Fold this sequence. Notes:
Distance between the termini: 23 Å
Strand content: 35-45%
Organism: Mycena chlorophos
Structural class: mainly beta
Largest sheet: 12 strands, mixed
Number of helices: 4
CATH class of the largest domain: Mainly Beta
CATH topology of the largest domain: Immunoglobulin-like
Protein name: Arrestin-like N-terminal domain-containing protein
Helix content: under 10%
Order of helices and strands: EEEEEEEEEEEEEHEEEEEHEEEEEEEHH
Number of domains: 2
Amino acid sequence: MAADEQLPGYTGKTVPSYAATGGAGTSAAAVPMTEHKYGLENLGKGKEWLFIFVKSRAPANASLPYFLQGDTVAGRVEVDLEKSESTKGIMIQILAGATSVGQEESIFLDLKQDLFPGGKLDKGKKSWPFSFTLPAQVSAAKDHGHKDKITIDAPPSFSERGGAAYIDYRLMVTVKRGALKPNQTLTKSFAYMPLTQPDAPSKLRAMAYKDGTALVGPDADPLGWKVLPPVKIKGKLFDAKDVEVECTVALATPLCYTIGAPIPIFMTLKGTDEVALDTLSNPKAVRMHLVRSMGLGSDAMDDSIKQRSNTFIQTGAGQAYFWNATEGAKEPGKRILQGEVELKKSVKPSFVFPRFTVRYTLNMLPFDITGFVQQADKKDALLSESVKIATRHIPGIVPRSYAPPGYEKPPESDYNAAVGYLENGNQRFFHHHGGAVQ
Length: 438
């Protein structure tokens, strides 16, 4: 893929947001379709003669074509010849492959249609329609160069400038020439998004979303939250006395959240020192990040890959923001904060695929506030919980933000800088490990 055609994510001018393409369960026929046109020039003549026309969910024809799982990729191939020519045939393919730095591409999807069997093509224009249905599952080699394959969910398109791995979906038209002439091909990448969704939330949380009422916390809705093990926050307050506060974090269940929606969080602080509680319950003191982990290489599907840093790349994907809860926020010996992590439209979904896997965790770093020095390495997470990122909402249930009216979200800090990475994850990978994934 050319540098100016890199996928910046799933939003923006190149790839539209999921909501912009019709939303969950919306068929391509139910949303306006944009036609894209791509051409191939004759060498030395500067005139296009071979064309692909294809319709997609993209918002504009200048955008990269965009499809969802189960969509039909349909269009036509045209030739416009200045003189009659002979050909051995014309074929169109959908190809998809995964690759990482220093490795050859591993093709996991190859759909073919013969458009013209071969023979003489008269001068002028000729056109052939094509239609493919994108499968939900593909056949992929378990390891590079191995013939053993597994059937697995098709991964999303993935491309980042300077990235260590790529997943590329593309249309390719091949005009087969005779033995003395090379074949001519026209290739165009497109964006693909699988359809994944969380399981249903608790009845009380679903009612809150539907009715626009306040979320019920973990004490009153134990089925709606996962309460993580308490963390002891020890440190020195105002350089004068040692204090200890117990911090308990609760995450909305199930631990799977949709791109474009918030991750709800409750945090409870308990202790005997009221000044310490007031200090640490300042929303600015909390540092909680959504962290994306890319696993590469032969062990990518192994959850323990994080133990081998040469194939494990972490980058920040979002940061939680907090405010004082509306009920029980401040009482003797206890403070409650409510918060969220906004899942921006640029966040990639979770997926597991041979040699390339994307996972997420919510990591809470030591507190950082004037007047309190915690007895912990600021780089080490106090807690870390695995979560999944999905691409669509449960029909009829759309999570919303519960930030107070007029709330201004604080600027996000850089996770990599917070934990001591001077470069982003991809650069760290190249600089420290020589580029190729073995």
